[in-house]
Amino acid sequence: MRKILSIAVVVVTCSTLSSSAVAAEVGESDSFHGPTGLQLYSLRNVFKDKGVAATLDMVEQWGFKYVEVAGTYGMSTKEFKAELDKRGLVAIGSHFPFNRLKDDVEGIVGEAKELGLIYAGCAWIGHKKPFDEQQCRAAAAVFNAAGKALAEHGLKFYYHNHGYEFYPYEDGTLFDLLMAETDPRYVYFQMDVLWTVLPAQDPVELLKRYPDRWLLFHLKDLKKGVPTGSLAGSTDLTNDVALGTGQVDWPALLGTAQKLGVKYYFIEDESPTVVKQIPQSLKFLGQLDF
Protein backbone atom coordinates (compact mmCIF):
# COMPACT_ATOMS: atom_id res chain seq x y z
CA MET A 1 0.00 0.00 0.00
CA ARG A 2 2.83 2.41 0.92
CA LYS A 3 4.52 1.62 -2.40
CA ILE A 4 1.37 2.45 -4.33
CA LEU A 5 0.98 5.74 -2.43
CA SER A 6 4.61 6.65 -3.14
CA ILE A 7 4.11 6.06 -6.86
CA ALA A 8 0.97 8.20 -6.77
CA VAL A 9 2.85 11.05 -5.06
CA VAL A 10 5.60 10.89 -7.70
CA VAL A 11 3.06 10.97 -10.52
CA VAL A 12 1.21 13.95 -9.02
CA THR A 13 4.46 15.78 -8.36
CA CYS A 14 5.75 15.23 -11.90
CA SER A 15 2.38 16.31 -13.31
CA THR A 16 2.53 19.50 -11.25
CA LEU A 17 6.07 20.26 -12.36
CA SER A 18 5.17 19.61 -15.98
CA SER A 19 2.19 21.97 -15.75
CA SER A 20 4.34 24.63 -14.12
CA ALA A 21 7.06 24.23 -16.73
CA VAL A 22 4.70 25.02 -19.57
CA ALA A 23 2.87 27.87 -17.80
CA ALA A 24 3.02 31.10 -19.80
CA GLU A 25 5.40 33.83 -18.68
CA VAL A 26 4.24 37.44 -18.48
CA GLY A 27 3.06 38.77 -21.83
CA GLU A 28 2.64 35.30 -23.32
CA SER A 29 -0.38 33.22 -24.30
CA ASP A 30 -1.13 29.78 -25.68
CA SER A 31 -0.45 31.25 -29.14
CA PHE A 32 2.20 33.87 -28.50
CA HIS A 33 5.25 32.50 -26.72
CA GLY A 34 7.43 35.62 -26.46
CA PRO A 35 9.65 35.92 -24.55
CA THR A 36 8.26 39.37 -23.72
CA GLY A 37 10.39 41.98 -22.02
CA LEU A 38 10.35 45.72 -21.38
CA GLN A 39 12.42 48.46 -22.97
CA LEU A 40 13.31 50.49 -19.89
CA TYR A 41 13.23 53.73 -21.90
CA SER A 42 9.47 53.41 -21.44
CA LEU A 43 9.98 54.42 -17.79
CA ARG A 44 12.58 57.16 -18.34
CA ASN A 45 10.47 59.75 -16.49
CA VAL A 46 9.66 57.33 -13.67
CA PHE A 47 13.38 56.65 -13.21
CA LYS A 48 13.99 60.39 -12.86
CA ASP A 49 11.08 60.93 -10.46
CA LYS A 50 11.27 57.82 -8.27
CA GLY A 51 14.82 56.58 -8.71
CA VAL A 52 16.27 53.32 -9.96
CA ALA A 53 15.26 51.02 -7.10
CA ALA A 54 11.57 51.99 -6.99
CA THR A 55 11.26 51.88 -10.79
CA LEU A 56 12.85 48.46 -11.09
CA ASP A 57 10.61 47.25 -8.27
CA MET A 58 7.67 48.19 -10.50
CA VAL A 59 9.16 46.29 -13.44
CA GLU A 60 9.57 43.22 -11.23
CA GLN A 61 6.02 43.52 -9.89
CA TRP A 62 4.64 43.55 -13.43
CA GLY A 63 6.29 40.16 -13.87
CA PHE A 64 8.97 40.98 -16.41
CA LYS A 65 12.14 38.91 -16.53
CA TYR A 66 13.85 40.43 -19.57
CA VAL A 67 14.72 44.08 -20.17
CA GLU A 68 16.37 46.22 -22.78
CA VAL A 69 18.49 48.88 -21.11
CA ALA A 70 18.36 52.59 -21.95
CA GLY A 71 20.89 54.33 -19.73
CA THR A 72 21.71 53.72 -16.08
CA TYR A 73 20.30 56.92 -14.55
CA GLY A 74 23.32 58.15 -12.65
CA MET A 75 24.62 54.71 -11.72
CA SER A 76 27.66 52.95 -13.10
CA THR A 77 26.91 49.99 -15.32
CA LYS A 78 28.07 47.65 -12.55
CA GLU A 79 25.80 49.30 -9.99
CA PHE A 80 22.84 49.19 -12.37
CA LYS A 81 23.53 45.53 -13.15
CA ALA A 82 23.52 44.78 -9.40
CA GLU A 83 20.07 46.39 -9.09
CA LEU A 84 18.79 44.28 -11.97
CA ASP A 85 20.23 41.15 -10.39
CA LYS A 86 18.49 41.84 -7.07
CA ARG A 87 15.16 41.60 -8.88
CA GLY A 88 15.96 38.73 -11.21
CA LEU A 89 15.89 41.04 -14.25
CA VAL A 90 18.04 40.00 -17.19
CA ALA A 91 19.45 42.68 -19.51
CA ILE A 92 19.37 41.37 -23.08
CA GLY A 93 20.36 44.39 -25.11
CA SER A 94 20.91 48.13 -25.11
CA HIS A 95 20.99 50.93 -27.66
CA PHE A 96 24.20 52.91 -28.08
CA PRO A 97 24.70 56.25 -29.89
CA PHE A 98 25.63 56.10 -33.57
CA ASN A 99 28.80 58.16 -33.02
CA ARG A 100 30.04 55.68 -30.44
CA LEU A 101 29.68 52.89 -32.98
CA LYS A 102 32.06 54.85 -35.18
CA ASP A 103 34.54 55.96 -32.54
CA ASP A 104 34.22 53.87 -29.37
CA VAL A 105 33.33 50.25 -30.10
CA GLU A 106 35.68 49.03 -27.37
CA GLY A 107 33.90 51.23 -24.85
CA ILE A 108 30.58 49.76 -25.94
CA VAL A 109 31.99 46.27 -25.50
CA GLY A 110 33.08 47.11 -21.97
CA GLU A 111 29.66 48.42 -20.96
CA ALA A 112 27.86 45.56 -22.65
CA LYS A 113 29.97 43.02 -20.81
CA GLU A 114 29.40 44.73 -17.45
CA LEU A 115 25.64 44.65 -18.06
CA GLY A 116 25.76 41.03 -19.20
CA LEU A 117 24.28 41.85 -22.61
CA ILE A 118 24.18 39.49 -25.56
CA TYR A 119 23.07 42.18 -28.05
CA ALA A 120 24.25 45.75 -28.64
CA GLY A 121 22.16 48.01 -30.85
CA CYS A 122 21.56 51.44 -32.29
CA ALA A 123 18.20 53.20 -32.55
CA TRP A 124 19.03 56.36 -34.49
CA ILE A 125 21.37 57.21 -37.36
CA GLY A 126 22.69 60.73 -36.95
CA HIS A 127 21.75 62.41 -40.23
CA LYS A 128 20.79 65.61 -41.99
CA LYS A 129 17.18 65.63 -43.11
CA PRO A 130 16.08 64.18 -45.36
CA PHE A 131 17.82 60.84 -44.96
CA ASP A 132 19.30 59.99 -48.36
CA GLU A 133 21.32 57.40 -50.27
CA GLN A 134 24.71 58.83 -49.34
CA GLN A 135 23.93 58.87 -45.63
CA CYS A 136 22.38 55.42 -45.84
CA ARG A 137 25.50 53.92 -47.44
CA ALA A 138 27.73 55.65 -44.89
CA ALA A 139 25.62 54.25 -42.03
CA ALA A 140 25.79 50.77 -43.51
CA ALA A 141 29.59 50.97 -43.54
CA VAL A 142 29.61 51.98 -39.85
CA PHE A 143 27.24 49.15 -38.99
CA ASN A 144 29.34 46.57 -40.84
CA ALA A 145 32.55 47.63 -39.09
CA ALA A 146 30.93 47.87 -35.65
CA GLY A 147 29.02 44.63 -36.11
CA LYS A 148 32.19 42.75 -37.00
CA ALA A 149 34.08 44.23 -34.04
CA LEU A 150 31.26 43.39 -31.64
CA ALA A 151 31.02 39.87 -33.02
CA GLU A 152 34.66 39.32 -32.14
CA HIS A 153 33.63 39.86 -28.51
CA GLY A 154 30.63 37.53 -28.73
CA LEU A 155 28.02 40.29 -29.16
CA LYS A 156 25.43 40.65 -31.91
CA PHE A 157 24.73 44.09 -33.34
CA TYR A 158 21.23 45.25 -34.30
CA TYR A 159 19.68 48.37 -35.79
CA HIS A 160 16.24 49.64 -34.74
CA ASN A 161 14.28 51.31 -37.55
CA HIS A 162 12.79 54.72 -36.86
CA GLY A 163 10.67 55.59 -39.88
CA TYR A 164 12.93 57.94 -41.85
CA GLU A 165 14.63 54.95 -43.55
CA PHE A 166 11.58 54.39 -45.78
CA TYR A 167 12.16 57.20 -48.26
CA PRO A 168 11.68 55.87 -51.79
CA TYR A 169 14.81 54.54 -53.47
CA GLU A 170 14.87 52.83 -56.87
CA ASP A 171 12.23 50.06 -56.76
CA GLY A 172 11.96 50.11 -52.98
CA THR A 173 13.12 52.28 -50.08
CA LEU A 174 16.33 53.31 -48.38
CA PHE A 175 15.58 50.61 -45.82
CA ASP A 176 15.96 48.06 -48.61
CA LEU A 177 19.31 49.66 -49.48
CA LEU A 178 20.38 49.46 -45.83
CA MET A 179 19.52 45.77 -45.80
CA ALA A 180 21.42 45.18 -49.04
CA GLU A 181 24.52 47.08 -47.93
CA THR A 182 24.86 45.51 -44.47
CA ASP A 183 26.56 42.17 -43.89
CA PRO A 184 24.03 39.61 -42.61
CA ARG A 185 26.82 37.92 -40.64
CA TYR A 186 27.28 41.01 -38.47
CA VAL A 187 24.20 43.24 -38.74
CA TYR A 188 20.73 42.28 -37.52
CA PHE A 189 17.57 44.31 -37.12
CA GLN A 190 14.98 45.18 -34.50
CA MET A 191 11.56 46.04 -35.87
CA ASP A 192 9.87 48.90 -34.08
CA VAL A 193 6.27 48.26 -35.06
CA LEU A 194 5.00 51.83 -34.67
CA TRP A 195 7.93 53.21 -36.69
CA THR A 196 7.08 50.69 -39.39
CA VAL A 197 3.33 51.32 -39.52
CA LEU A 198 3.52 55.13 -39.26
CA PRO A 199 5.51 55.43 -42.52
CA ALA A 200 2.84 53.24 -44.18
CA GLN A 201 4.91 50.07 -44.38
CA ASP A 202 3.44 46.58 -44.00
CA PRO A 203 5.32 44.98 -41.09
CA VAL A 204 4.27 41.44 -42.05
CA GLU A 205 5.49 41.90 -45.62
CA LEU A 206 8.73 43.42 -44.34
CA LEU A 207 9.33 40.43 -42.09
CA LYS A 208 8.78 38.04 -44.98
CA ARG A 209 10.99 40.05 -47.33
CA TYR A 210 13.96 39.67 -44.97
CA PRO A 211 13.18 36.51 -42.99
CA ASP A 212 16.72 35.94 -41.69
CA ARG A 213 17.57 39.45 -40.52
CA TRP A 214 15.14 40.13 -37.67
CA LEU A 215 16.50 39.56 -34.18
CA LEU A 216 14.29 41.62 -31.86
CA PHE A 217 10.97 43.50 -31.75
CA HIS A 218 9.65 46.66 -30.16
CA LEU A 219 5.96 46.09 -29.48
CA LYS A 220 4.32 49.47 -29.95
CA ASP A 221 0.83 50.32 -31.26
CA LEU A 222 -0.27 53.39 -33.23
CA LYS A 223 -3.44 55.19 -32.20
CA LYS A 224 -6.43 54.62 -34.43
CA GLY A 225 -7.15 57.50 -36.79
CA VAL A 226 -3.54 58.73 -36.98
CA PRO A 227 -2.70 59.13 -40.69
CA THR A 228 0.16 56.98 -41.95
CA GLY A 229 2.82 57.94 -44.47
CA SER A 230 5.00 60.15 -42.27
CA LEU A 231 8.76 59.75 -42.70
CA ALA A 232 9.64 62.23 -39.98
CA GLY A 233 10.69 59.64 -37.40
CA SER A 234 8.58 61.39 -34.78
CA THR A 235 4.95 61.66 -33.67
CA ASP A 236 3.01 62.94 -30.68
CA LEU A 237 3.67 60.66 -27.72
CA THR A 238 -0.06 60.26 -27.10
CA ASN A 239 -0.23 58.37 -30.40
CA ASP A 240 1.59 55.49 -28.67
CA VAL A 241 -1.29 53.46 -27.24
CA ALA A 242 -1.75 50.19 -25.34
CA LEU A 243 -1.25 47.11 -27.49
CA GLY A 244 -4.43 45.92 -29.13
CA THR A 245 -6.15 49.32 -29.05
CA GLY A 246 -4.48 50.78 -32.13
CA GLN A 247 -3.95 50.09 -35.82
CA VAL A 248 -1.69 47.02 -35.71
CA ASP A 249 -2.92 43.54 -36.68
CA TRP A 250 -1.06 41.80 -33.87
CA PRO A 251 -2.16 38.20 -34.53
CA ALA A 252 -0.89 38.34 -38.13
CA LEU A 253 2.32 40.14 -37.19
CA LEU A 254 3.32 38.12 -34.14
CA GLY A 255 2.29 34.86 -35.75
CA THR A 256 4.69 35.63 -38.62
CA ALA A 257 7.48 36.87 -36.34
CA GLN A 258 7.24 33.75 -34.21
CA LYS A 259 7.48 31.47 -37.26
CA LEU A 260 10.59 33.35 -38.44
CA GLY A 261 12.29 32.93 -35.07
CA VAL A 262 12.46 36.46 -33.65
CA LYS A 263 14.32 36.06 -30.36
CA TYR A 264 12.87 38.67 -27.95
CA TYR A 265 9.88 41.01 -27.91
CA PHE A 266 10.19 44.20 -25.87
CA ILE A 267 7.23 46.41 -25.05
CA GLU A 268 8.26 50.01 -25.60
CA ASP A 269 5.67 52.55 -24.55
CA GLU A 270 6.64 56.21 -24.83
CA SER A 271 3.22 57.60 -23.87
CA PRO A 272 2.61 59.88 -20.87
CA THR A 273 0.24 57.20 -19.51
CA VAL A 274 2.81 54.42 -19.73
CA VAL A 275 2.31 53.13 -16.16
CA LYS A 276 -1.36 52.54 -16.90
CA GLN A 277 -0.80 51.19 -20.40
CA ILE A 278 1.86 48.55 -19.71
CA PRO A 279 -0.48 46.31 -17.66
CA GLN A 280 -3.11 46.72 -20.38
CA SER A 281 -0.59 45.64 -23.02
CA LEU A 282 0.48 42.63 -20.96
CA LYS A 283 -3.15 41.58 -20.53
CA PHE A 284 -3.71 41.84 -24.27
CA LEU A 285 -0.66 39.72 -25.08
CA GLY A 286 -1.69 37.17 -22.46
CA GLN A 287 -5.03 36.69 -24.20
CA LEU A 288 -3.72 36.75 -27.78
CA ASP A 289 -5.02 33.94 -29.98
CA PHE A 290 -3.96 33.14 -33.52
Question: Residue share in helices?
Answer: 40-55%
CATH architecture: Alpha-Beta Barrel
Q: How widely separated are the two ends?
A: 47 Å
Number of strands: 12
Let me know the CATH homologous superfamily: Divalent-metal-dependent TIM barrel enzymes
Portion in beta strands: 15-25%
Assign an overall shape: globular
Q: Could you name the ranges where pLDDT drops below 50 across 5 or more consecutive residues?
A: 1-23
In spatial order, strands of the major sheet run 1-2-3-4-5-8-9-12
Q: How many DSSP H or I helices?
A: 11
Fill in the CATH topology.
TIM Barrel
- The radius of gyration is 20 Å
Oligomer: single chain
In sequence order, what are the helices and strands, one letter per element? HEHEHEHHEHEEEHEHHEEEHEH
Total domain modules: 1
State the secondary-structure class. Answer: alpha/beta
Structural summary, described in words:
The protein has 290 residues and is α/β, with parallel strands linked by helices. The protein has one domain (29-286): Divalent-metal-dependent TIM barrel enzymes (TIM Barrel, Alpha-Beta Barrel). It has eleven helices and twelve strands. The chain has helices at residues 2-21, 44-62, 77-86, 98-103, 105-115, 133-151, 174-181, 194-197, 203-209, 250-260, 274-286, and strands at 36-39, 66-69, 90-95, 119-122, 156-160, 168-169, 172-173, 187-192, 214-219, 221-222, 240-241, 264-267. β6 and β7 (172-173) form a beta hairpin. The radius of gyration is 20 Å and the shape is globular. The model is unreliable at 1-23 (pLDDT under 50).
